[in-house]
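Students often ask why we bother predicting the structure of a whole assembly rather than each chain alone. The short answer is interfaces. A chain on its own may look different once its partners are present, and contacts between molecules only exist in the joint model. In this exercise we take two input lines together and write out one structure for the complete complex. Read the inputs first and try to guess which parts will touch.
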Amino acid sequence: MSAIETSAANDLAAPVDHSVAAGENELLQLVSFVVGDEEFAVPILSVQEINRMMQITRVPQSPPFVEGVINLRGKIIPVINLRERFGMEKLDDSEDMRIIVVEVNDRVIGFTVDRVNEVLRISADIVDPAPQMVLSGGVDGDYVQGVGKLDDRLLILLSLERLFSDEEMAEVDAATVQAA
Amino acid sequence: MSDMDPSLIQDFLTEAGELIEQLDADLVKLETAEGDELTELCNSCFRGLHTIKGAASFLGLTAVTTFAHAAEDALNKMRKGEVPVTTEVMDAMLRSADVVRDQIDALSGGGEAAEGPADLIDTLHRIANAQADDDDAGEAAAGPAADHDAPGVPLELPAQKADLLEFMVQDLRDYADQLDEVFGQVANDATREEAAAQLAEIGDNMVKTAEFFELDHLSRVVSLFVTTAPSLNDCPGDLLPELLIRLQAAQRLIHDQAAALENQRALTWSLDTFVERITRLSGHTQIEEQFVGLHDNVVDNVLALDEIVKDTYEPVEAPPAEATADQTGAGADAPSAEPTPAADKKKEDAPANKPAVEQTIRVEVGRLESLLNLVGQLVLNKNRVLGLTRTLKDASIPAELNEEFTAAAGELDHLMGELQVGVMRTRMQPLAKLFDRYPRVIRDIARQTDKKIDLLIEGKDTEVDKSVLENLADPLVHILRNSADHGVEPPADRLAKSKPETGVIKLTAEHQGSHVRVAIADDGKGLDPKVIGGKAVERGLVSPEQLDKMNDSDIFRFIFEAGFSTAKQVSDLSGRGVGMDVVRTNIQKLNGTINIDSAVDRGTTIEILIPLTVAIMPAMVVGVGRHLYSVPLQSIIEIVRPETEQVHTVKGHQVMRLRDSVLPLVNMQERLNEERNDHGGRFAVVVAVGGQSAGLLVDKLVGQQEIVIKPLDDGYTQGGPFSGATIQDDGEVSLILDVTQLVRQPPASAGPPETRAA
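Now the answer. The structure tokens for the assembled complex follow.
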């Protein structure tokens, strides 16, 4: 498995079209990572950097899926626990865990994943639209932009915009308040 | 305007915005000014309007130009004292300033400037044409005594035009300067077409100026630019230098005429050969053999130019002729249009007309912002280095090395401090930026409400951080409006209370340590604690029993509650109960505090205390559970160690007896969901915000530190009692406690005023 280090992805980060909307023969450049039992992918251009786990400062009274905040070279950004976000069981920190830092809707946000797999190019042809269903492990279909059929496995293409949209956050916030 | 360089337009908008601010302030002062001050203010206003008009016309913003011109004419009348400064005239002038401001705003917003309102233009014309008949009478005598050493013939101008001379000369010079750039672009193939268009435009503007003064010779020269410009585009390469040389000669003539104009003199010259040569060149016809080929040699070129210029100064009138010929002859040896000595003398006589060279540069706010960010990070890094020196002391390294390192770190600390202050200062702006707008606000309210109000301003040179300035703008307007509208009584009421008819609102600003104190005091009717208390009970903000125990200054605080208004009538000025809520919110954003002091019929004083800067502040770092938090030092009154017997529980809340009072305690372990431990609450950090205080129970005190405030505005981490985050010297993030929230919202149930603030 190839862990991608910070600079590689950073060089490519640019505010280009993040969408994975498929055109014929279009090549998608993705970063794939694992959360729970599924393999996910996001467009590499939306990824600013990938970091090893670092000290995360807990923020009391924030929603449970907010792991806390980190110091990213003088900038303070929130870190979302994707397992918690997808309603999966939380894991203890491990050597493989990474924080993927993305820029979505003009905000810089980090999220934790179990491990990062690889950077890969796939043809847009092999991506099917998201099936209207809740994927195993509780991933809401709304966040899924498509499913890439690789030779040996399936890749879930996440829509970061929807995953971290304001409305989505508000909904989750409301849910947390009710639960509390 | 679409074909103009956007940066030019941006510059214009910025400058015009500032000029309008100045104009507004000057106009208000003008209303009460007398004598020399009046003249100076009129001139200042006139200059401002004229600059806007000139720039707008250059940019082709017709609506602005036309309106500014009308206003300028009216102002010119006032300047000469031909129209008395009456309230009506001032209303028209102030409204004009508003119209221009709106036009500028519209352009800034990417829209088009609207035409000025017709009725206002009519009024302006009426002012401008008042007593127009007298105009021609006292003309020649009005101008400064003609200087007979100056070249040219005395220029006879009607007084109205003579007054404009100063501005026209400036215009001419500006245009001539613009020509320099245009000539450069003409020489370049790539930019020639654009340059030709600009040349025609500048020429056109100058023709208007020349015609205004009936300077036929000048207007003949400048119209050359208009006629020549189109032919530049397809001018054969070898003729271009010839043409350019002559255009430059023409520019030289313009400069000379501008200098002569300052002495109210018109230059005359025989131009026939010159004009003929240019016309032939622009018709792409070769002229005399000897001129062609001269352009190979620069020296010859200059000589040729001199020759032409000399030729053109054929004096027409006899007496000044010799002097003129001498001077121009001398000037011709040095072709760089030097002003004539006479013009120099004139300049010395009137130094006030020349604005002092500004020792400032404009810097984009974004750049300062990023500089400040870097300094913030440096401060953190410095903290880290200082932290390391402490660690090193414990390590077993040679003492010398240790000392040297400590010294270096100390130096770093010192320099960092200065750098920090330096960068902060670049962001500091005088409060005058805000205060200068307020005389207008007060004047308008006084007019609308038929009151007499004097606004006294003190300490407007006090400087504060840019963000402080911005956040202070709205609150101050609200408070001032309240003072003028609700505070100061109508003249009749005031007389009945045997107060002076004219109310006084005093706005003062001063530095107090690392804070700035802004106070607004009026001598109006004051706040009645009974009325406010009654209203608060009525609105359920407080129970009658609680009210009984409150002191006046706490009761006054209710006016900051959203929707709280005691005004019986809502006017369009104030009374809707929105304003004071904004005041509180903005001041809190700045970590500031407000206090109200008031006595019935004696007036109200509202005092605002704000830290000079909002980005870096001293804080006490405390430990709660396993984490560290920062408490702004500014809100800390004292730190005490509560003994067990001092702590009591009242209705489920922990309180402690502190000297004579009872202090509510906030269990921070509980509040921050930290793991409970046995060391919990060993210290009570006593904090106070706006008259309310509480003790925050923390586990340990780490020490005092400069912290750099980073906002927590990502949408995920809000909600907790935090005003931001900061980075500790080990690089970890620690949260800054929002004392206001902690004091006002003790967890679970508490008194009604606290719980509703959620």
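Check your guess against this: The mean pLDDT of chain B is 75.
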